[in-house]
Amino acid sequence: MQIVLYNQNMDTTYDLDAEYGKRGYLKENYRIFNIKNLCKQEFEFHYHEFEKLVLFKSGKASYIIEGKEYVLKPNDILLVCSGDIHKPVISSDEEYERIIIWIKSDYIKNNHSLYNCFEKTKGSGQYLLRLPESSANEIFYAAEKFNHESSENFESDLMKNTIFIQLMIMLNRACEKYDNIQIEYKSDKQTDSIIEYINKNIFEDLSVDKISSEFFISRYYLMHKFKRVTGKTIYSYIRSKRLIHAADLISSGCSAKTACFESGFNNYSVFLKAFKKEFGCVPTDYRKAKKM
User: With a threshold of 0.85, does the pTM exceed it?
Assistant: First the structure.
């Protein structure tokens, strides 16, 4: 199946991996798409190596992010951080329209104040921003303006960068002003606690026996419930989180062996095999690709 992504400069058809695949690299500082389609496919849990904003316009959809499911309403904004495991759940009987903005992690993190909204999201575990209509309209308007800025215009790159920064300032101000708005979501409190425990102790012993002992539950119950709630086995969740951290270390200059052991792996050969399967290349090639 393919969907049409309306880019700011052209109408182009991309494969679904363009939005939902975890592999590939965002070489630009940011990329924006306005997407409208009827989805007739279930999506797998995945993650990105960049930050992502989802500005929901219309349709029937929810998003599951790190075990929390948000039922979306028009003008909702989702902040999906690099490495967050997530997937959309979309009804196929209504057209689903959203604006997607990918943001290169290194770029946004170098602009520390603009990254605050993602840091707050990561710290609070609250991934959805539901604003008063006037505030939401300002951000959506800026996103539309950003999307439609033509490369044929005078100093278009400078203008796009200006609009992008304005959009991120508005988003961060909204996060500060409305940070006490509580959004309802579906989740399992015990699984939330297990996910939080895993992420805080990702470099330590995270055997199923250790985790089940920590939460006073049986191995079978832990594995069965985690898969049912998150859609991933607890083994694959832990492995993905460790590989994400290893990839960050490698792209910042660490050797593959250092990244292996500092990410919680205790066998270098197992790490290399898992890394290649996850990212489609060996660590040295991954580092080169990220620097291109």
Answer: no
